[in-house]
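Students often ask why we bother encoding 3D structure as a string. The short answer is that it lets us treat folding as translation between two languages. Here is a chain of 726 residues written in the first language.
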Amino acid sequence: MQERAVERGEFHDVIVAIFLLIVTILIFWKLALTSQFTWLNSPDQAYQVLPWLQEQARQLRTGHFPVWDRHHWGGYPFPGQSQPGVLFPLNWLLALIPLKDGQLQLQWLNAWFVLIHYPGTLAAWRLCRDRGCSQPASAMGAIFFGLGGWMAYNDWPQMVNGGVLAPLVFLFLLRAFERRPLYNGALAGAMLGISLWSGHHQIPMFVGLAAMVMVVLRRAVLAGGAFGLFALLTGAPQLLTSNEYYSLALRWVGANNPVTIHDKVPYSVFGGFSLNPVQFLYGLTIPIPYGNVSVFAGVVVVALAASAIILRWRRSPEVPLIAAAGGFSLLYAMGVFTPLHGMLYGILPGLDKSRNLAYAVMPLHLCLGLLTAFGWDAWWERAGRIPLLAIRIAGGFGGLLLAATFLFRALQPEKEYDLAPIAMAALFSLTLAGVAEGWRRGALTSRTALACVLGLLVLETGQKTGWQYAHVEQGWPFLAPMLFHNDVGEFVQAHLGQGRVLLDPASVPYNFGDWYGVDQSNGISSATSNILRYNGNPNLQRLMGVRFWLGAKPHREGQTVLMTGRAGIHVYEEPDAFPRAWTVHRILETGPADSEWQARMNLPTEQLRQSTFLAAGMAPSLEQCDASAADSVNLTRFGSTLHVLNVDLRCRGMVVLGNLYFPGWEATVDGKPAPIHEAYGFLQGVVVDGGRHRVQLKYWPGSLMRGVALLGIGLVGILTLRRTRL
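And here it is in the second language, the structure alphabet:
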């Protein structure tokens, strides 16, 4: 009998999982069931995120894990840039998306974007079930968290991926408060650490803060220690690579000047990223669009969550913890409007790195989802004997909104359409009150009431999901350039060779290099300070081998038009570009001041072609040769992480490769290790003796390997704890 009960329970779990998948598709119907909408029609998504996804898919399809993107700013570490999210397993599904003309198809990208929400929905359902909630109640909580609120309104895949494991963080942490604090605390930390692989640290940080509130309230020292330690161990692959990159890069955060990872983000920045309390009060139950964040939960969720707090506060020990974590997240999201964030900003290091404080509503919505499940079970256990006061509040709220709708319509009939969100909230409130009253009076059976409330929750949740998606007939102005530059892209692919392109951002505003798989000298991303010190210097573009300028008009006199695309973009030739690799036999030393480096960069082009400059005290010895003979440099293999050169030098000199100098690159000359020098202050230089040699440069991301080693230690630690009772 017991085995049959287990089998029946597992069968029901499968049914619910299928049901949640169907609901996911239905709520995201704009993306899943039509080809008329897109989530990519915004500057950041089209110009930056989509090309990142394209480059990941390109490298994954060739069997190469994307650890280096060579297409922008001389190259940068893909994991270190963090936001592309190359370490997160859901991004690996990009390799399965069919390509058209070598590029990702938008309809398949829509399907992928819908799919990445499903694991979060399942995780939330598992959390509710683990807390003893019924199948229907757990489905309600899961639908709201995974398919509504913040998770549905946010269209940054790296942010969504950062939230899909948040329910499992709470699941294992709540278990740790009850049993096996070290083991379950370690599992909770591991879920948070893996969330960091998603590409953005903000959501994992906000979830971690909410989790630590529960740890402090429970005084769970062992669970909290294991949680923090294993979050660092499992998050190490992302943490170490990001720390390495951003220690050398500059980041624009909305302040007057860019900052490094070691600089504290000025507090003035946070005002524009805080959740306005007015937005919360109006937007929690009324689906009014506000900026880039949605606090909307809906009448059904708020009513059920409030019922959980009132009816389950003493009976369920996790309800006060979840309510406290949600309340903390709300106050933290309000940022500059309360002193809480400022206090923590001044005390805890690292909190300044998460600017968008309004996104802290995400753990609030997770808490509301779990409370929704508790609330429905509280109603169900009372067999419809819902407190009359609760019904009157819901009905009164709906009546008030309905009256406000009629009043404002009478006063301003021309703004009738703007009243639709208020009218919808009124209808949901009145309908919920009617269902509850009918159930209380016995006019509706419990199953009928369940179907009605579940239907109301799905409809109310789905009305905001996809609100911001653009219809094709409204125009996709940010995607349009990417879809109509194929002729230019094909020309550049065929004729660029080992050179680079430079773009006019007014004419080609997106990351052309990643989108078409060609090397671009600039790009929309952070960049290391060694190359940014020369930004705008024409000699920088020559040293980087810029052969083509793409724009509606030339950027200097005498440029030759090589072709014109159907969108009016011209490809101009840059005749004085350096080759991708060359040799020098003279080194100039330079002091630490940026002005000295910039002065060296302003030397005549011919002098730059014959000599390089390095930091004082770092220059190796070279030999001056007979000028009657020329060196030979042949770049025979040119990939993302491996470059091979066959060289023949007249005498000892330096082979310069026009790629960014960055830690992790290793060089060999005839198979023997050789140091890489920071030629010109930002390029790779290898000293080679006279004669014929084979030079190889390979990217071996040591920070990532160290992170993987720490991850391995964390996994071994979890397996060890599993064998204990701790």
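Translate back mentally: The longest helix spans residues 2-27. Keep this in mind for the problem set.
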